[in-house]
Amino acid sequence: MRIRDIEAADLDAIHAINEAGTPGVHSEPPAQLAAITRQSCIALVAEIDGAVAGFCQVLAPGAGYQSLNYAWFSARYEDFVYLDRVAVAAEHRGRGIGSRLYEEVERRAGAPWFTLEVNLRPRNDGSLRFHARRGFVEVGQQETDYGALVSLMAKKLR
Predict the structure, then answer these.
(1) Tens-place pLDDT, residues 39-69
(2) How many domains is the chain built from?
């Protein structure tokens, strides 16, 4: 497995993985995923045998990103990285790809806080367990503009 920065040629594969991962990740048109990648301070793919197997997009404070969840963290944390999305292709789940992506984000992040949200409605128990094992704790909850209830989570990095 190779972890590397997202390249323009990866965008079709990223979109397919993202859409297959709903409702665990929010559906986005390809142009919006490309825009999020451009705004990201860390944007990674996990590659297996030359194919994209998973990806993540991470934003820093001050991005022009219009997300209720990102805005929640921006209002409360001065210095953080925000994981907007992470998704792994179904055929590659259970192989540690998510963990490897998170390890690389934590290695690259200069911020003291790693933040994200996980769905409580619709409930994503697998993601809640994964994040608890990685040291994330709930710091709030909110109803979203797309009809989900989310757990807002943070992990102290430094």
Answers:
(1) 999 999 999 999 999 999 999 999 989 899 9
(2) 1
CATH number, domain with residue 41: 3.40.630.30
Residue-number span of the structural domain to which 151 is assigned = 2-156
CA distance 3 to 158: 23
Q: Helices 30-39 and 11-20 sit at what angle, rounded to 10 degrees?
A: 110
Within its chain, how far is the Cα of 156 from the centroid? 16
Nearest to 113 by CA among 67, 55, 72, 141: 72
For residue 90, the one-letter residue type is A
Q: Is 26 exposed, middle or buried (0-12, 13-18, 19+ CB in 10 A)?
A: middle
144 C-beta neighbours (distance < 10 Å), count: 16
